[in-house]
Amino acid sequence: MNHSMFIGLLLINNYFTLGLLIKQYNCDNYILAWCQLHNVTIQSDKDLQSVSFPKVQQVGFLNGSIHHFSHFLNLSLFKAGVLGIFARGTKISHLTMPSTVEQLYFRDNELSSVVIDPNVSYNIKYLRIHLNKLTDVSNFKQLTSLVELNLCDNLIEHLSFDIFSGMIYLNQLLLCGNRIKTITASLDVSLPNLYHLDLSSNFLFDFTSLHQCHLPRLSNFSLRDNLLVSLDVPAIAQRLTALKILDVEHNSLDCDTYQQLLKLVHQRKIIYNVDKRACGVPPTTPPPVIVTRQWADPDLRPEDGSLQQVRQLKERIYQQVKIINSQRDEIEYLRANLSALMEQFDLVAATAREKEQF
Question: Model's pTM, two decimal places?
Answer without folding.
Answer: 0.75
